[in-house]
Amino acid sequence: MRSTGFLRRMTPGWKRLVTRIIEAAAARNDRPPTVVQAFAARRPVVLALCASTPIGVLMALAARSRLGTVRGALFVLANWVLVACVFALVGYAERFRQRRTRGPRGE
Description:
This protein is mainly α. It is about 75% helix and about 0% strand. α2 packs across α4 and α3 runs antiparallel to α4 (about 70-100). The longest helix has about 35 residues, at about 70-100. It is elongated and about 60 Å long.
């Protein structure tokens, strides 16, 4: 069978390297999730709040001079919400990854 796409255009040395990397990633996915990964998948919103609150406090401390105005406070709040959303998306992505690696029957 002839390979198609990305691997077809590669030299044999690079093809072996990419294949080795892909197989190593597949082997890592066979292991059960760690405690932190299970927590992130089970509670993505709690993960977002716990991880983004210290970052939000640091942002507020760094922008003390801007907090005197409503515009400055909204700027810091919007940045904190953005960071929280990123952490929540990471949690949901971890949940999806764990469901995908468990298979259709949830094994």
